[in-house]
Amino acid sequence: xxxxxxxxxxxxxxxxxxxxxxxxxxxxxxxxxxxxxxxxxxxxxxxxxxxxxxxxxxxxxxxxxxxxxxxxxxxxxxxxxxxxxxxxxxxxxxxxxxxxxxxxxxxxxxxxxxxxxxxxxxxxxxxxxxxxxxxxxxxxxxxxxxxxxxxxxxxxx
Length: 157
Prior knowledge:
The longest helix has 8 residues, at about 150-155. It is built from three helices and 13 strands, in the order H-E-E-E-E-E-E-E-E-E-E-E-E-E-H-H. Strand 1 and strand 2 (about 20-25) form a beta hairpin. The relative contact order is 0.23. By secondary structure, it is mostly beta strands.
């Protein structure tokens, strides 16, 4: 049976600081300064797990692979919240590939209970923790007080 544990084991996924599991699978050999032009990861969330709100300096493309659809929540610089549905149910507004623009605060969760979602993510230029910000609930609540419910759901109290 193809479940979360199958993919975690077979793909060698490790726990990730923002939540869920990941493994880097590619770094472009061409360079942009001191980093690769692009890099990709596998990323998996189980139901009940979240990708905590964070921000990257670079654009990030997400590609759906398997399992439940994923809900990707974005807060733009104006403080507007939107949810993008990542999955194959195109007739219901889901998209198999999405773009999270650089400098956007975002997090994610699995759309269905008792499931998981496996995606790939590509960052260009390649991912570097120097470009990664993981937010606390307190910080986000001060910046975006109008979004308390989703902040608490994804980042805790």
